Amino acid sequence: MVLRIPRSFLLFVACVLAAPLAGAQEPAALTLHDCFQLALKRSEEIAIHQELIKETEGRFLQALSGALPRASFNSSNKRQDAAGDSPFRLRDVPERKFTFSQPLFSGFKEFAAMAGSRAERRQRIQEKVRAEQLLFVDVSDAFYSLLEHREDGAALTTIREALVERLRELKGREELGRSRPSETASAEARLRRIEAEMEQVRSEELVTRQLLEFLTGLSPLRPLAGAELRLPLEPEGYYLAKTADRADVRAAEEAWRVESKEVAVARAAVWPTVSADGNYYTKRVGVSEQVEWDATLTVDVPIFQGGQAVGAIEEASSEARQARLRFEQTSRQALLDIRDAYAQMQAALARRDALEQALAAADRNYLLQIEDYRLNLVSNLDVLQTLQDLQDARRDFLHAQHEAKRQYWRLRAAAGDL
């Protein structure tokens, strides 16, 4: 009897066996967004800002507790002298009671403190947002710098190969007497300079890669995917209009609100305070044994405190004015940041476009020089100089291209538009 295995089952087994092989493929290349997400998880600075938010939540609960009633259970056992004819001739005086306390009025100090805590929480949230934006700028700078160094190294490798080919051709022509030894020496000197620049670029690439590994926590770093990025440049007014919504500006405004509420807290010291306290006794002895509860209404009116309250109000008012000035300074600094970033972005785009045209012209010139050299219309030095011009144009264009991308994200960060 021959056992027949269904074809569908064989396909299923093949897929199961192939799954580990598929999972063994190289990891996907990292995009800028991937690097930023990894940096967010890695950054201690962002974690500190998150803890500051939790700290403000704790202060809000403390401020809220000042307006809520308090309850506690007290147990005591007093031992006293029972000699003489005193009616309190008890040696042991135990007492058990529940104590309740309710603040009725304290100059609205608790409400001002709660409002200040809410404003401080909003401030910490905005500070965390700004820290994330600045972290994104750091990641984007390192990301595009690493891509730039790698592409620069690839360009230098291409130029080196061209110089090696030129040097080989020159040596052949020298053997035939069609080229001077000085031409070969000049080409070799240029080749060694290119090799020296390649070592410099490798060193810069290593430093930048280590920086990106530090930011992302990945070591070794996975390949990078530098997708094409459109660089739309809106009118300057579009970015300036976002100044008020920038995270650090909003944080400074919330800090001003916090200090303003501190003034209200300080002023509460000159208001009277009213509170109600009550006790419910579960165990008493002696003449008070039949008294099960008592209540007290307390009114405390401050008359003279030696200038302490007035001094606290003046101090809090001064800190509030300082916070307002810092808010105004932050707003003006944000406007300056946007204008500077916008000007740099405009210059970067203009330089990139100009260098792109220069690269195309240098490439055409090099090809024409090669043809003229083969026809003995130009010298080898002319060809080498043209090759040098092509090298410089290509590297300048690569630098301008990546610099425009870096400036684009700096402009978005300056406007708080990330």
Description:
There is one protein chain. Helix 8 packs antiparallel against helix 9. The protein has a four-stranded antiparallel sheet with strand order 1-2-3-4, with no helix packed on it. It is of the alpha+beta class and 418 residues long. The chain has a domain at 30-68 and 108-269 and 331-414: Outer membrane efflux proteins (OEP) (Up-down Bundle). It is elongated. The longest helix is centred in the middle third of the chain and has 67 residues, at 109-175. The protein has helices at 7-23, 32-42, 44-65, 109-175, 181-216, 236-240, 247-267, 308-374, 380-414; strands at residues 70-79, 92-105, 273-283, 293-300. The protein is built from nine helices and four strands, in the order H-H-H-E-E-H-H-H-H-E-E-H-H.
Describe the secondary structure blueprint for this structure.
Blueprint: H1 7-23, H2 32-42, H3 44-65, E1 70-79, E2 92-105, H4 109-175, H5 181-216, H6 236-240, H7 247-267, E3 273-283, E4 293-300, H8 308-374, H9 380-414
Antiparallel strand pairs: 1-2, 2-3, 3-4
Short description:
By secondary structure, the protein is of the alpha+beta class. 67% of the residues lie in helices and 10% in strands. It is built from 9 helices and 4 strands.
List keywords for this structure.
418 residues, Outer membrane efflux proteins (OEP), 4-stranded antiparallel beta sheet, elongated
Strand order of the largest sheet: 1-2-3-4
Shape: elongated
CATH architecture of the domain at 30-68 and 108-269 and 331-414: Up-down Bundle
Oligomer: single chain
The CATH class of the domain at 30-68 and 108-269 and 331-414, by name, is: Mainly Alpha
CATH topology of the domain at 30-68 and 108-269 and 331-414: Outer membrane efflux proteins (OEP)
The DSSP helix count reads 9
CATH homologous superfamily of the domain at 30-68 and 108-269 and 331-414, by name?
Answer: Outer membrane efflux proteins (OEP)
Distance between the termini: 71 Å
Measured as a percent range, the helix fraction is 55-70%
Give a short account of the largest sheet.
Answer: 4 strands, antiparallel
Strand content: 5-15%
